[in-house]
Design a protein that fits this description.
Keywords: ATP-binding, Nucleotide-binding, Transport
Protein name: ABC-2 type transport system ATP-binding protein
Order of helices and strands: EEEEHEEHEHHHEHEHEEHEHEEHEH
Largest sheet: 7 strands, mixed
CATH superfamily of the largest domain: P-loop containing nucleotide triphosphate hydrolases
Strand content: 15-25%
Distance between the termini: 35 Å
Radius of gyration: 23 Å
Number of helices: 11
Pfam families: ABC_tran (PF00005)
Bound molecules: adenosine-5'-triphosphate
Shape: elongated
GO molecular function: ATP binding; ATP hydrolysis activity
Family: Belongs to the ABC transporter superfamily.
Length: 349
């Protein structure tokens, strides 16, 4: 799997092309959506490998929801292409959407019907669900999202978290090849958040591709195999989570008693390094760890330990989106843009 990090943000780059032969559940090229003067999504090339759990991360207004709506054919792109399960959207929507479960804002439940009755209406529209299986499928979906005990209450009396759960249940009524979840833990308490995590893990185990947008970095770090970081409507980084953290992680921490000699010998070899309380920190942007160690040993520096500096997703994210992590809610993104809050018009153009 390849990883790409936009060089504009100065943290290195790699080839963004998918590995040969790897199947993509979703793919966009040159995707763009404007609303009047607002550019919601721009030049977005997204690759979602089959079976991945892709976390779409980004500050408020970075284009996550618009991207998801274009993936699902709910919004027509201004330019560019969207392929879902190999077929071009939105034209292939009738073919593709039965295999795609989605939780998006405003799923359109009827306020005076119960959760179960709402699901029954939606289940009747599922082309792949035989009528004899509808009642069982509804019970299973309600159970899976922890809503069984409130299933017979009216939707309008549901809390935000219960509404989210019902949306999730609707997405899970039949087995899907892709499940797309826009902020699924929005409004959920910690127990609800754990349940969503379990649902995502279960989907992953069954081979379903999951695309999930979130503000919560810790959430993404815990549940996702892949990440796309959006900023101003475009992907500033995407790829496998572990590789992305590694690629964005350009420091080698070397424990040595000879800090001055170590820094000088590296600088003589044009390798940037600085002294730290616990040793020296070497910038690996232009070199590799073995070269650093060899250079130090050749200069007679005692190397006790050398390890890659682990940065969390939060730090990498802050670097990529110019967000300021200090003072931000733990695990949440800070708002980084002065957005003109254009009223949402609600529908495709
Ligand atoms: N229907 C619409 N009409 C006008 N502007 C819109 C519409 N939908 C989105 N936008 C604008 O497009 C930009 C991207 O919005 P979008 O909702 O896709 O971002 P987001 O990353 O999902 O944000 P958030 O995390 O706040 O949900 C914002 O500036 C938003 O105001």
């Amino acid at each position: 799997m390849t990883v790409s990090i936009s060089t504009e943000h100065g943290v290195g780059a790699a080839d963004a092309a998918p590995a040969p032969g790897s199947a993509l559940a979703a793919r966009t090229r040159g995707l763009r959506k404007t609303y009047g003067n607002t550019v919601a999504v721009d030049h977005l090339d997204l690759d979602v490998p089959e079976g991945a759990v892709l976390g779409m991360l980004g500050p408020n207004g970075s284009g996550k929801t618009t991207t998801i709506r274009m993936l699902l054919g709910l919004v027509r792109p201004t330019a560019g292409e969207v392929h879902l399960l190999g077929k071009q959207m939105p034209n292939a929507a009738p073919d593709v959407l039965p295999e795609v479960g989605a939780l998006v804002e405003g799923p359109g439940f009827h306020p005076f019907l119960s959760g179960r009755e709402n699901l029954r209406r939606l289940a009747a529209l599922e082309p792949t669900l035989p009528s004899g299986r509808i009642a069982t499928a509804i019970d299973e979906a309600l159970e899976r999202v922890g809503l069984a005990s409130a299933a017979n209450r009216r939707y309008r009396g549901y809390s935000l978290g219960m509404k989210q759960r019902l949306g999730l249940a609707a997405a899970l009524l039949v087995p899907r090849r892709i499940v797309v979840l826009d902020e699924p833990t929005n409004g959920l308490d910690p127990a609800g958040t754990r349940e969503v995590r379990n649902v995502i893990a279960g989907l992953q185990d069954s081979g379903t591709t999951v695309i999930v947008s979130s503000h919560l970095l810790a959430e993404v770090e815990a549940t996702c195999t892949h990440v796309a970081v959006l900023h101003n409507g475009t992907a500033v980084a995407q790829g496998e989570l572990a590789e992305l953290l590694e690629t964005g992680n350009a420091g080698l921490l070397v424990s040595t008693p000879d800090t001055t000699l170590a820094v000088d010998s590296l600088r003589d070899n044009r390798i940037p390094a600085r002294a730290m309380p616990e040793g020296i920190l070497v910038d690996l942007t232009t070199t590799t760890a073995p070269v650093v160690v060899e250079t130090l040993v050749r200069a007679g520096v005692g190397v006790h330990e050398a390890r890659r500096q682990r940065t969390g997703l939060e730090e990498l994210f802050a670097r990529l989106t110019d967000a300021e992590p200090d003072g931000a809610e733990p695990g949440a993104l800070s708002e980084v843009d002065d957005l003109v809050d254009t009223p949402h018009e609600g529908e495709a153009r």
